[in-house]
Amino acid sequence: MQPVDPHLPVAHLRPLRNWVNDPNGLVFDNGQYHVFFQYNPNGPDHGDIHWGHFRSPDLVRWELLPVALAPTPGGDDADGCWSGNAIADDGRLVAFYCGKRADRWWQPITTATSRDGGYTWEKRARPLIPQPPAGTTMYRDPYVWRQDGRWRMLVGAALEGGRPAALLYESPDLENWTYLGPFHTGAPGEAAGWECPQYATFGDRGVLVVSHWDLQHGPQHVAVTSGHEEHGRFTASPPVPLDHGPDFYAPALLRAPDGRWLLWGWAPEARTADWVREAGWSGALTLPRELTLADDGTVCQRPARELLGLRTRRILRATGELTGSPVDLGEVSRAFDLSATLTGESGLRLVTSADDTEYLDIRLEPDAGGLVVDRGHASRDPRARRGAYALPRPRADAVDLRILVDGSIVEVYPAGGQVLTLRFYPTGDGPWRLRALGSGRFAAEAWDLRADVIHRELLPALDARERN
């Protein structure tokens, strides 16, 4: 069935309707990738938060499973099953999450266990960690992993004195946890607190990802830093943006069976609340990315290699030299995968209206020292956010790009390992067209994205044998 809203993505994970935010509980178990996410099944607004659930055997074909976690009336999660993660251990999935109640400022850490592949869950009777440590002013979002024969947990927090922090716990058995103190802290005033801390190891080096939260304005941006751990403390390089776009937050990590680190983030809406309510849905997860660590400590990202399986027919292929006059490259669909090379001051324009007044620009700006993604003219509806955003330009004469466009989401990956995620909302009535402009050489090749890879309707109930 054709969705009512043409801005609904076809390849980015989300159900057909209602609210989606943070990815949670990324885990691989019994041949399946599981991606849980913050979900309001009753409307497109942030509230009544459950854990939604997708699974996939290959990161390409996805199935929507029944809601995994729901608030328990009167319980410690009465006002929401908020963010956390999950692990596979001894034939079971264990979800770690924070219970939201409106009558307390902190969110105790608790768990739920599934022994049938995530279809049914049993919550623990009491919180796993009911109280935050002394001296904290924010406390939420556990991240649990196994390292050197022990279980470890980070919790997002803020400390008295205005320092954001990721707090460290350890356990021999997933039940008894010892608080070891702050794993890493930010500068005073850097953020009201850190949400959704994530940690990836690369040999004796580590990468810490934190989402900056502001008391007045809520989610802000995501920072990443690399370094070394000694005695439960992380010594890190200065933080840098994990994503240079305005529409990316609360990423989560998964260690794939082959050892790769995979990452999903949340792409929130960039349109007004009344438009969201009209559409009946809000938010999507990004496509999965591979996260790597270079020898110099730079954290790099690229689309997961499995995403090549989303490509179908090739819709354009062009090369040329630009001398100031635009060059039309051909029509594209509303969901496509583009590989391009740009030099000089060249760029690409995605034209989405017949009269050429609505367009999204991606261009090299040597004077600005970067690659600019400009949505200033990307929607004729005044309820869409505007603005131009820059990525650091790779140190090369020719800049290779991978650009994934899906309905209202754009993910731009220069070859240097940076990324920019942005939402846009075309309203034009003409077919979408790609155009090269500026001066310099260019090459572009694009493929349609498959529109049949996400089964957004619930799978029928399965018996225990089929679940396992």
What does this 3D model show about the protein?
The chain has 468 residues and is mainly beta. It folds into 2 domains: 18-304, Glycosyl hydrolase domain, family 43 (Tachylectin-2, Chain A, 5 Propeller); 307-449, Exo-inulinase, domain 1 (Jelly Rolls), CATH 2.60.120.560. 2% of the residues lie in helices and 55% in strands. The chain is built from 2 helices and 35 strands. Strands 24, 25, 26, 27, 28, 29, 30, 31, 32, 33 and 34 form an 11-stranded antiparallel beta sheet that branches. β27 (345-351) and β28 form a beta hairpin. It is globular, with a radius of gyration of 22 Å. Residues 462-468 have low confidence and may be disordered.
> What's the structural domain tally?
2
What helical percentage do the residues reach? Answer: under 10%
Query: How many strands appear in the DSSP assignment?
Result: 35
What is the CA–CA distance across the termini?
31 Å
The description of the largest β-sheet is: 11 strands, antiparallel
Identify the notable features of this structure and list them briefly.
468 residues, 2% helix, 2 domains, mainly beta, 35 strands, eleven-stranded antiparallel beta sheet, Jelly Rolls, six-stranded mixed beta sheet, disordered C terminus, Tachylectin-2, Chain A
Q: Which helices and strands appear, and what pairs or packs with what?
A:
Blueprint: E1 18-29, E2 32-40, E3 50-56, E4 62-69, E5 81-89, E6 92-99, E7 109-114, E8 122-123, E9 136-147, E10 150-159, E11 163-171, E12 178-185, E13 193-202, E14 205-214, E15 218-230, E16 233-236, E17 240-241, E18 249-255, E19 261-267, H1 273-279, E20 281-282, E21 284-285, E22 289-293, E23 299-303, E24 311-323, E25 327-331, E26 335-343, E27 345-351, E28 359-365, E29 370-374, E30 388-392, E31 398-406, E32 409-414, E33 420-423, E34 433-449, E35 454-458, H2 464-467
